[in-house]
Amino acid sequence: MSQKHIYKIGTEGKPWGDEEKATWLAQQSNQRSYFDDVVNKLEGLKDTFDVEQYGSLDYQQFDAKTYPLYAVKTRNWDHNKPTILVTGGVHGYETSGVHGALRFLETKAKGYAEKFNIVVAPCVSPWGYETINRWNPLAVDPNRSFVKNSPAPEAAALMSLMESVPTEILVHVDLHETTDTDNSEFRPAKAARDGTVNTNWNIPDGFYLVGDSDKPAPEFQLAVLDSVAKVTHIAEADEHGKLIGETVAQEGAINYAVAKLGLCMGLTKAKYVTTTEVYPDSANATPEECIQAQVASVVGALEFVLDRAR
């Protein structure tokens, strides 16, 4: 099913200018606290991991805050161990991505530290987290901004961090959600901003993955899906064999042109990359199950690497 959805700001067919962006920004407000929900939890990890501030977002000009950006790393870095990157909150509104990254650090990361170097950026877009937004205050989507001269400071800061990591990344798991608001708010807003026509897609009920069409790694994707299936249900394709408008590559997985789209999972040259997509609005999943599904996806990726090494 697809349907046209006209957004409340702007003129259909005409891209936003500064006035429309200012109107949009004025409608945003804080609905939760990055400092309470994320930064405070990082304090509790400092006895076990290195917690590093890798950047800062000064959004005071938008009547917002200055947000410190943090990454968590395992200690005793070893060039002989594979390195895994986990990112959450690239789209700040996708709650289980942020809390799944934190939960992985709290419950699983220490157990894998002997075998892996681990880097976790749990909340790449703190303003988006607080205001429950896909974009930053500039009306820019960080997850389409992992490109040279990035227009999103969130993406630019993370790219700079990864340039400082002394080993190559083997695995990157980027934790996301697909929500009902993708259709009711964020896709219509994007079309209005860009002066294009939006047609909504069906929101899949369940968990699915997005791989890189240039290196789809089906066995890796399957290992992640098998791990998640122990926690929550995997999304089924629609009547056209698609998920969010894309042809299914394998059950529960689609592929995107990562480099072309400037997606976070194209941030490194990692051999194995995937973006998780949890459906938090499902009647068949609780918020806790969504967080556990994100943790299970990272565990599945780690176990895949260990199995390949045996």
Describe the structure.
With 310 residues, the protein is α/β, with parallel strands linked by helices. It has one domain (18-309): Aminopeptidase. The chain contains ten helices and ten strands. It has helices at 18-26, 34-43, 95-107, 109-112, 126-131, 153-163, 181-194, 218-228, 258-261, 287-309, and strands at residues 50-58, 66-73, 83-88, 117-121, 169-177, 208-212, 242-243, 246-247, 253-256, 272-278. The strands form two sheets. An eight-stranded mixed sheet has the order 1-2-4-3-5-10-6-9, sandwiched between helices. α3 packs across α10 and α8 packs across α10. The longest helix is centred in the C-terminal third of the chain and has 23 residues, at 287-309. The protein is globular. The termini are far apart. InterPro entries: Peptidase_M14 (IPR000834). The active site is at 277 (proton donor/acceptor). One of its GO terms (molecular function) is zinc ion binding. One of its GO terms (biological process) is proteolysis.
Structure characteristics:
310 residues; Aminopeptidase; Zinc carboxypeptidase; metallocarboxypeptidase activity; protease
Topology:
Blueprint: H1 18-26, H2 34-43, E1 50-58, E2 66-73, E3 83-88, H3 95-107, H4 109-112, E4 117-121, H5 126-131, H6 153-163, E5 169-177, H7 181-194, E6 208-212, H8 218-228, E7 242-243, E8 246-247, E9 253-256, H9 258-261, E10 272-278, H10 287-309
Parallel strand pairs: 3-4, 3-5, 5-10, 6-9
Antiparallel strand pairs: 1-2, 2-4, 6-10, 7-8
